Amino acid sequence: MNYTAAHNKALEMFQAQSPEEMARYSGYQLRDNRFQVNFLGQEFEVEYPTGKFSPEPSPEGELPIFAQILILHYLANTKPVTEEGKLISYKELPGGNIYIQPFTNRAIRPLVQQFGDNPASLIEVASEIGGEPVRHGDAAVLVRAFPRVPVTMVVWGGDDEFPASGNILFDASAGSVLHTEDFAVLASFVVATMKRLAQK
Fold first, then answer.
1. CB 171, CB 87: distance < 8 Å
2. Can you tell me the distance from the alpha carbon of 195 to that of 112, in angstroms, rounded to the nearest whole number?
3. Sheet holding 132-133, edge to edge
4. CATH 3.30.310 residue window(s) in the chain
5. CA distance 67 to 102
6. Fewest CB within a 10 Å sphere: which of 19, 105, 129, 134?
7. How many Å apart are CA 190 and CA 194, to the nearest integer?
8. CB atoms within 10 A of CB 199
9. For residues 120 and 169, is the Cβ–Cβ distance under 8 A?
């Protein structure tokens, strides 16, 4: 997929906002027109207004262009949003019910394939990217993909009667922070990062 057009649009959104406002609402510090971004355990600076990442991600590195687009989308949202403390599934996001099958294939299924046989390993791996255990299923973790975007991953181990299963949940405020499509990309990237760490 060619992400150039999407990246250009995200960059325009980013450049249209005040850096001070973006710092205020994103939860990221701004130093010398550079946002200090921690994204799933990786430290980056994002320069304003160029949107340039440093250290510059390599094409085959761990921060692909679609993840850079997500970060720009997140920074560019300067709406005040308060976490509600209520968990919702992807299909409860605006329009999410239409895309639930692709979301399941891209994010939930890989989560279960990696951690369904050993749910406890989910907690161990998530700790490497700042994830914290929460009380759901057989094992569950909360990972703050962004300061205002908690992602809760839940796994139930399989047995003789039922196969392993899982779910990925968001705060009820999520739809005000990012578009529904962004959450599909974000969740799949979080799971891919966890799988990569688990397989090291």
1. yes
2. 11
3. 87-89, 165-171, 149-156, 139-146, 132-133
4. 87-198
5. 18
6. 105
7. 6
8. 8
9. no
* Residue 169 one-letter amino acid: L
What's the token pair of residue 125? 């791996």
**What's the one-letter identity of residue 146?**
F
The arithmetic mean of pLDDT across residues 153-161, rounded, is 93
Its pTM stands at: 0.93
Which amino acid appears at position 21 of this protein?
A: E
Stretch among 45-49, 52-56, 112-116, 118-122 having the lowest mean pLDDT:
52-56
Checking 12-20 for CB contacts under 8 A at 24+ apart, the result is 13/72, 13/73, 13/76, 14/48, 14/49, 14/51, 14/72, 14/75, 14/76, 15/48, 15/49, 15/51, 16/76, 17/75, 17/76, 17/78, 18/78, 19/48, 19/49
37 has which bridge partners? 44
Please report where in the chains the tokens 């974000």 appear, as a residue: 186
Q: What is the pLDDT of residues 13-53, one digit of tens each?
A: 999 999 999 999 999 999 999 999 999 989 999 999 999 99
CATH architecture of the domain with residue range 87-198: 2-Layer Sandwich (3.30)
Percentage above 90 pLDDT, the chain: 90
Q: Retrieve residue 53's tokens.
A: 């990442």
67 neighbors 39 (Cβ within 8 angstroms):
yes
- Can you tell me which residue has the tokens 């997140």? 74
